[in-house]
Each structure stands twice: as C-alpha cells, then as structure tokens.
C-alpha cells in the first residue's frame, strides 16, 4: 500500500486529483537527524508550491512504531514540529494556543498545515492506512486552498456526509476551527475532542482547552 493508493480509496474528491511535489522518506526512528538532512528539499517545495500549483508534499515514516498508537503519533507530531522550529525560524509552536486564534506554520513565506495518516487509526477513521504500517504526513500549502477555494466551499458539506455514510465520520466543526494547531492529530474516540500534541505532557484532552473549544464550536 502506498500513499497514492490510500488517497484513491478516500471519499474526499479533492484528495484524488491532488498534484504532489517530491516526497521525503524517513527510514529510521531518528526523525530529527533524517528530517534535517532534507532541509533544502523542504524549502524548495514551499518556495515554489504556488508557482508550480503544488497541492502537497508527502513525508513517509517507515518505522512502524512511530504511528502504531495514538500516543506514538502525538509524540511524532511534536518531534516533527520541534525539528522544523530548528530548521526554519518562521516555524514556532505556541505555548498555550486558543481555538479562535489563527496559527499556521510557515516555510519560505508559504503557510501550511499537516494532515497525518497512521496505522493507529481504525477502519472507521478517515485517516485509516488500509493495513500499511507506515505513517504519512501530508504537508499542504495554504496556496492550494486559495486556488481551489470555490470547489472546496461547494464540496465541504458533501465530503463530511460521504465519510459518515461509509462509517468513517469526523467532526466537521473541529475540522473548521480557526486555529490549525488543533487539527494536526485527528482524534479517534470521541471524535470531537482535540489532542494537545504540542504539550510534552500531552494527555488525550486538556479540560480547559476543551471548554474553550466547545465554546468555539457551539457558540
């Protein structure tokens, strides 16, 4: 199973025709060292993403333990962003993010966000990898959404219904929260509670931030 095959099985019409840039493969659990070696490739992708109409870059983690459980994926996500902060001064992790704040990481002037697919996700999740033991990080530049804005707006509700119809529901309200940091790791159950991956003492949920998130979702 490859990431291309995973996207072909998705019920998101935007994912299938996406135009990807060169990918990166991290072969061991030394994420920090291997990722740093690819700094120039990452920088080049984001520098030219808008000009070349690129929709994303795939980072493949071949070590199965990096995404075998949700806790492992949380740890990988935190390590990944922490490494990016060392590679690029424009990337930072806020200490106490709020749901209604706007936050994106930025590389070479291009804002982006992360979507992860990992073996920890069950068949009922939109992030299911269909038995593939690798973990995939999809880095999506903001320019792709600006380019496809009208199509995405028309399809947004339909995408959510399509996933729900085949037993792969996700919380559309959480997906539409203003602060992207809350969306980097999709929860498994319950699907409407964010995962504070940015905290070294991360637990499945943070009660205070959950209350703020509930207010942002429900008014």
Verbal overview:
With 219 residues, the chain is of the alpha+beta class. It is 37% helix and 12% strand. The chain has a five-stranded mixed sheet. Helix 2 (31-37) crosses helix 4 (70-87). The longest helix has 18 residues, at 70-87.
Order of helices and strands, N to C? HEHHEHEEEHHHH
Q: Report on the biggest sheet.
A: 5 strands, mixed
- Basic shape: globular
The strand line-up of the biggest sheet is 1-2-5-4-3
Q: Look at the helices and sheets and give the structural class.
A: alpha+beta
Distance between the termini: 42 Å
Number of strands: 5
Strand content: 5-15%
Q: What proportion of the residues is helical, as a percent range?
A: 25-40%
* Contiguous uncertain segments of 5+ residues: 203-214
Instruction: Kindly provide the radius of gyration, computed on alpha-carbon positions and rounded to a whole number of angstroms.
Output: 16 Å
